[in-house]
Each structure stands twice: as structure tokens, then as C-alpha cells.
């Protein structure tokens, strides 16, 4: 970890904590540097093994695109195969899978605050809750028994604990005092959501959902988990499933099986009171009362929906080239009619879209 | 099989036995000496460049190292000794066939040969045959073919070569080759091994190559024995064993390991009867790999495939120089592994090869049709000729249709394998010019290739990857092979240079394919001063695109090696060789983030007895 950054960060953290017990508090961040105050980040994972992951930024007026933001601000490459970003308060926590590290930057200036490069192995997604960073890790991809969630202190980024979990932990979502971890299975297939008690950092439950739970949204005390189902090359192909979990008692209160085993839904999204998901390149809205998906429109331009977000009435799709080389695209559609409104050339293999606003 | 049967077959096919029987001992000689006569006799219209045993011996034992300095072909390497593939005439890694004593040995799983898993020191010669060759050499012979050959001699004697050496990065190597022959029997034995810690520094960084250690051993035995005046049995066997740590990239540490075990066996019975040459070949090939993502763990993925081939080839010479070969063959391949569950394919094939040598004109026509339920086999053909205008000038013209069949991975891979794939096909034409002056020889070839149904793994809407027949690519370019040799100051100087200009254009995007340099040059030479020989090798590799949108590229690079060899004893003939590689310490990579070694050296002791 970079020592200078650590100091800066420590001072920052104390600043947020209102300097309650410190005599020599920290200097405030210069405000004019908040170059990325409002706009969209696109995370480009780059090519596996090539160390060319990057972050692109599009300003809020959707006019300017700046590529390689991390490099431009910090003077060093982001790393190899960036997987995801967690935005929390002033932090952007970038999980760099192959580099086995996490880059923590200020989300408004993109200045590096810290690099966490210990106690991680195949890190996937991060979530902050209770001033702790939780990071899902596959461990050795060939070993089904070494998967874990690593916990770090948000204050000084020190390692707190490694929580052993079932195979292939992927997305993580904190609700109240719990961390819900969806297990797609990594190199294999899995069908559970494990629940970590963030008070004692122990696994308190494993909830069976559909095969390959790929996305989660929370709506009040309901956690909706969408599972894609096993793909056609699995021994038995299975249909997707939507499960509703009561977060207070970890019980599945209702679930809906998709009608056809070839239906592999993904990207469960909540926009206001409306629920959306995708199958292939088609966007569906999902009626929670009838529990029926209805097809809205197909997005023709992307090679595939590698990154997908619905935000303020727009659909954002990050799409690599079909051969996963060269620069991919960010496509923006109206959620109301599916019309393409904007497109930007992103970096190499964009996989995620994140909003600063 | 008896002679009457041969005659019956012959009558059935052509009904013209009124030709005077004759005994062409020169042809026989080639049939006996060579493992792959077709390379010599059915390459009309195409240039074949032979790299002899002394050149093989002077180079590192990895096939990549030999070819990158002595051919216009481009090689992508994941580091020294690591996975390596060729691009010949701008084609992909699976569009070059590697042929061992006449048999295609490209992997059934990947369709390609890893050029760093071929130890060159056990072969008598290695020949390069740019251009199509699927009629004779099968799948993947689109860009060109590379031939690993063992030859026989019946000279009543023996000779032995022994070479031991070591070099930078704790590299050790040893090779022994022995030939023993009588009038009736010929035996060749070859053993070669190399091992290396391979922990070279990554130039321009403070890192070094980690986990790149490797060793490999190749054993070769070939035996020929005359049964009587008209029948000879030949047996070739090669075993290769190699373990490698797969080195990481500049950004990606690795702790993986890869083990290769390959064995190849070929038994041939050849029979000569007047104008008839009959050859029955039985071959058995096994390839086996294990991949450990974590070399400290017991978990691995694997693949193994066995290929059995039976092939009957009947040649009839109507007149001296006018010959027809009819070939029937049957291949059965079984594969199993992680991701491939007991796959099998059976391929039957019929070929006819017509060959005619006239005074100035030599031409050939050949056809091949396969029968299989595994893919839709196209009719393959080749037609070519040479015309000698004068002693100094020869013109070559050739056209052919070639293919690459879907691999086991393409067809049967559990996550995405596509049984509906068609083979890639290529229609191509070339014109070659050979100019021979006293000391100077030039071969300049222009070619055009139209490759259809390229098989590529692309992500489907639901995110899974599948191989599909996609693009159409046009490749065209120029290929130049030159050499010069003469005396300067009473000592022999020999120079040789190759150049390739390559365009490989995707017809949809109109962009150059990735990993195909537009320019590649090699230049090498040797100067002999009695018992001292100085030599150099050099190459220039143009920049290559690493993305299909041509937005990203790797820089061009130049490499120069120097060598000196001093023979200090005559009996036994003993010499010492010193070589310096990459003397200008050029920082280069042929794959992104895969840094290649800087300056290094090796020394070796060579004894011939």
C-alpha cells in the first residue's frame, strides 16, 4: 500500500469523522479538482493478462468522453482485468480481478487513496457497510473449497478477516446488518445466496435460490434475487428463477420459475416501482403482481450486454467488440421506447457503468 | 497384398498396362531414402525450402527459434519456451500444418502445433512449404506446411553427433544423433533435451520472468530394412515429453504448469514392382496434456487424443516421369478430456495425384475427397506446374483448394461446442519466380488466398461462447527467399535473406487481422576461415495489430544474434561454439505483456565421430 496515500486517506477519514478526538486535523480537499463531480464512469476490463484495464468518463451533458481516467490522474496503469467498482460516499473502490488488488480512489477527483493488494485472490465485487469493505473472492479457480469474502477496514484499509464461503461468490449486497452474497459458482455452478452477519462477520445462513444467481435488488425488506439458470452446455439446462427473500428471517417467501429452460434472465433492475430484466439482448419489464415478464424491445447494437444499467429513464449498455479485442462501446437508450439516444467509444472490453450524481 | 492384386487395381483404374516396364532406380532411391516422397514429387508450382541438419544443429532446439530466424513466417510467443504459434502468409495459428514424416500432427484439440513443443535436434531436415497442401497434408495446410523429416541412408557405416551446451538463465541442453547403416538396414537414433530456469529479466522493468521454467526431451528412432530386392519396411517413432511452468505476463503472475506427452509412430511397407510402387502405412499418434492452474495443487485439466491411420498408396509410372498415385486412407480419432467427453471421429479419404515431368515443363493435378459424418467435406484439389525458361529462370504456378476441419474443441467442447460447423476452406493461387545465377538464387512468390467460413469463438446473446463460421478473409502478399554464396579472400561466405509482405484483410471490416505483421525480414550469414566460422542471424518484425479494430498494436522489433565456432580437433572432429543472442538487448514482445529475453549467450561443445 502506498504510504503517502495512506496518510492522505487517514486524514480524510478523520475529516469525515468530524475530527472528534484529533488535535491536528486534516486539510480539506481542494474543491476545484472535483473533475468528475457528475457524470458516468465506464469500467473497461481490458484484455486478460495484458494489464490494460481502464476507466472512461462521460460528463453529465453527455458531450465529452475522457478515457484512461485512472492513468491520467495517477500516472500508473489501473491493472489487469478490472471487474467492478463500488461507489460509497467519496470513495470509488475498483476491484481488479487478475491483479488481485483493489484500487481505492476519490470518486470525484479519481486521485488514488490506497491500493489493497493483500489477502485477495480472484476478487470479484465489493460492498461497503458498517465502515468495512467486503470483497468476494473465488480463490484458486480450480479449487471449489477456498472461496472467501475478505473484509477490510474502510478507515485504514487494513485487513480484518477472511470469511470462508461456498463456491463462486459473485455479487454482494448489504441490507441492514447483513451482507448477501450471490454464488454463481465461479468455474462451476452454484445456487445459493449466503448471508454474512456484518456484526460478527460470520456466515449465518445459506439460502437456496435458482442456479447461477446473477443479480440482486432490494426493495424495502424484500431482497429480489434473479438466477440465470444453468446454460445449455451444463449437464441439465435449467430455467432462470426469481426469488423473493425476506431479509429479516432469510426465508424465500415467493419464487417464480421462468417457463422455458432456455430462458436465462439477467440484469435485474429496479427503476422506481418498475422491475426490468434482460434475456439475451431483449429487455423485459416484469410485473411483480402477476409475476410475468413482458418483452419490451431488443437492443440490436451491442455485441452483448456485458454491462447493463437502468438509470433515470435511460438504459446504459457496455458492449465489447464481438471478439473481445479493441475498443468497445457504451450505448444509451430511452427506457420508454428503446430508441438509441447516444453512443460512445469506450475502452477495451467495457463491463460496467457507474454514475456520479 | 500380392502383385496380382496391384495389377487388378491398376487395370480397374486405368486399363492401360501396355507400357514398357522399367526400373527407375532414381525414383526408388527417393522412395527409400525419404519419409515423405510427396514433398519432393508433388510440390510442382510451389517452393520448398529445406533447412538442413547443420542449420538445425546451430540453432536452439526449439522449433520457434529455428524458424523465426530462418523463414519469413511470423511467430507469436508467450515468452521464451512458452506457447508459440505460427502465422504463415497472414493466416491464423491453426492454418499451418506441421507434418512429421508425412503425417499431420496438429493437435486434435486446438488444430495447431505449439512450436515450442517440437525439439528440432532429432530431425535430419526441416522443410518449409508455403502455400496450400490439404490434398496431401490434410487439415490446416492453408497458409503452409512445415515438415519434420528423418531420412535413411544405406552407406554401410555409422556416424555420431554429440552436442552439449549451456547458456544464460540456467539453460542446459544435450543432443545425440547416430546413424548406422548397412546395405540392407538403416537405423537412426536421436535424443535431445533442453532445460531452463528461464528467469530472464524483463527489460525496461524491475521484474523478471517468473514461473517460466521448462524442460523437454525428444526421442527419435527410425529403422529401415530391405526384406528383399523389392520390399522395404520402414518404422519411425518419436516421443516427446515436456513440462513447463507457464510464465505470467507483465501484469499477471502465474503459478500454472503444463505437461505435454506426445508419441508418434509410423510403420510403412513399400514394395516396388516394375512401374508400380505400393505403400501401406499404419500410423498411431497420441497427444496428451495436463494443465495445472496451480502447480502446487493436484487439480488439473487434461486432454488426450489418439489417432490411428491406415493408408494405402499405389503409384504407377506410365512412362518415365509420368505417374499416377491413387491413395485410400482411413483415420479414426478418439479424444477425451476435461470439457470433451469421449469424442470420436472417423474420416475416410480418397486421393488421386497425377504427376508429369516433361523436358521443361513439370505439372501435377491432384484431388482429394473425404467421407465423414463429422463435417461436410469439400472436394480438395491442387493444380500446379513449373516451366523452365532457361537455366537461370523457372516459373511456378499453382492453385489449390484447402481446408481446416473443426477441432475437437470446436465440435465437442461442453460449454459451447458446435456440431454444425463447416470446415474453413481456402481457394488460393500463386505465381513463383526462381532466378538462379552462379552464386545467387532468388525465389519470389506472389499469392492470393480467399478463406471462407473462418471458425471463431464468439459470445452469444446469452453470454456463452460458441464457435461459428464467420468471416471471409483475403490474404495476399509477396514472399522472397534469397541466398548467395561465394568466396571472399579464399574463404567461403554465405548469406541468406527472407522477406514477407503480408496483407490479411477481413472482408467485413476491411481491417488487417490481428497478429499478422505486414513486414518480416530475416538476414543471416556465415564466413568460414579454416577451422573458425563466424555467423550472424537477424530479423525484423513489423508492428502487429492486437485488436480487430486496429486501434492497438505492438511495436516492430529487430534482433541480431552472433556466433563463432572453432574446430580444435580433427579426430574426433571436435568444436566449440559460442553464441550471443539479441546482442542489442532489444526489448520486444510478440504477444502483449509477454516480454521476451534480452541479451543472452550459450556455449556448446560438438563432437562428431
Characterization of this structure:
The complex is a heterodimer of chains A (357) and B (609). In chain A, strand 10 (148-153) and strand 11 form a beta hairpin. Chain A has 357 residues and is mostly beta strands. The longest helix of chain A is centred in the N-terminal third of the chain and has 14 residues, at 3-16. Chain A has helices spanning 3-16, 69-74; strands spanning 39-44, 54-59, 65-66, 82-88, 91-96, 101-106, 112-116, 123-129, 132-137, 148-153, 159-164, 169-175, 178-183, 192-197, 202-208, 213-219, 222-227, 241-246, 251-257, 265-271, 274-279, 282-287, 292-298, 307-311, 314-319, 327-334, 340-348, 350-356. Chain A has one domain (3-12, 29-305): YVTN repeat-like/Quinoprotein amine dehydrogenase (Methylamine Dehydrogenase, Chain H). Chain B is mostly beta strands and 609 residues long. Chain B has one domain (2-608): TonB-dependent receptor, beta-barrel domain (Maltoporin, Chain A, Beta Barrel). Chain B is built from seven helices and 33 strands. Chain B has helices at residues 3-14, 25-33, 37-41, 53-58, 63-70, 134-137, 408-412, and strands at residues 49-51, 74-77, 84-87, 96-100, 103-104, 125-130, 144-149, 157-167, 171-181, 185-196, 214-228, 231-246, 256-273, 276-292, 301-319, 322-337, 340-357, 361-371, 380-388, 393-404, 424-436, 440-452, 455-459, 465-469, 473-488, 491-506, 519-529, 532-541, 544-545, 553-554, 557-570, 573-581, 600-608. Residues 5-24 of chain B have low confidence and may be disordered. The interface between A and B is medium-sized, with 33 and 34 residues. Chain B: One of its GO terms (cellular component) is cell outer membrane. Chain B: It comes from Christiangramia crocea. Chain B: Pfam families: Plug (PF07715), TonB_dep_Rec_b-barrel (PF00593). Chain B: GO terms for molecular function: siderophore uptake transmembrane transporter activity.
